[in-house]
Amino acid sequence: MITRFAPSPTGPLHLGHAYSAMLAHDMAMAQNGTFLLRIEDIDQARARPKWEAQIYHDLHWLGLKWPEPVMRQSTQMGRYRAVLQQLWHDGQLYACSCTRADIAAATSAPQEGGRVVGPDGLIYPGTCRDRPRGGPQPPTDAALRLDIASLQHSSDTAPGLAFAETGAGPNNETGAIRFTLADLASTAGDIVLARRDMGTSYHLSVVLDDAAQDVTHVVRGRDLFDATRIHVMLQRLLGLPSPIYHHHRLIRDDTEKRLAKRDDARALSKYRAEGATPDDIRRMVGL
Ligand code: GLU
Asked: Residue 58 Cα, ligand 1 centroid: separation in angstroms?
């Protein structure tokens, strides 16, 4: 079994991160497996070396161990680009220059049938879908969207998709989770695989790296359950195996708000400074 914890170094780790990391670690250790740490720092506008250093410090303090060297996504851009180039060459991507405001304006038009919000925000109304596609190099001055409708017509992506869930989604979905490309087209739409400012996206990078690191069990918060359908579709499209998914409960504070990274008062380092021990943290998150 290979599990991983994949934080973004954009703020301090809090109790929710500690729970996720310890659970992934404990699950791997119980099976004599491997626990990996991966730094998801593709958002270079928000990632900070100080937060990355604090991640190592906090996780070591909790008693977690992982093999070195740690994969940092910012060093993997060549791999992401190669996949984007292939998809672009195959005509499965199109360039999109719409701003959030453009998308909001287009989806608020009454003839569009109302707004649908998916795991990536508003479902893209397809404004740029007819722009010219293909050619050797994808443009870098626009976002690249995946044409989900074109996949529905291609033979290598069968319409029926599924993954195994050993935890639970927000509506207690568990076991074999089945869905179709048509479901994905209506609930997520033409997702962005490369943001203009990043050259990749969370969905593309997470899928490529889980496969590159042979991750067998993805352990993460329930808030990412809906994104999993996107990940499984990408795995099928790219010929990659799907790991088993284990979505866990979210750790909430007294007011039932999900802990947010900006909520520094709840940072793990604050508890440590106040004298809490790693065992106290385990008890606090119910491990
Ligand atoms: N990097 C993501 C985050 O910090 C987690 C990705 C994942 O576990 O799939 O929210």
From this structure: 17
Atom 2 of ligand 1: nearest residue by CA position: 7
Q: Is the CB of 3 under 6 A from ligand 1?
A: no
pTM over 0.90: yes
Which atom of ligand 1 has the smallest separation from the CA of 10? Answer: 4
Q: How far is the CA of 202 from the centre of ligand 1 (A)?
A: 8
Q: Give nearest CA residue, ligand 1 atom 7.
A: 6
155-209 pLDDT, tens digit per residue, is 555 568 999 999 999 999 999 999 999 889 989 999 999 999 999 999 999 999 9
At 89, give phi and psi (nearest 5°).
-60, -40
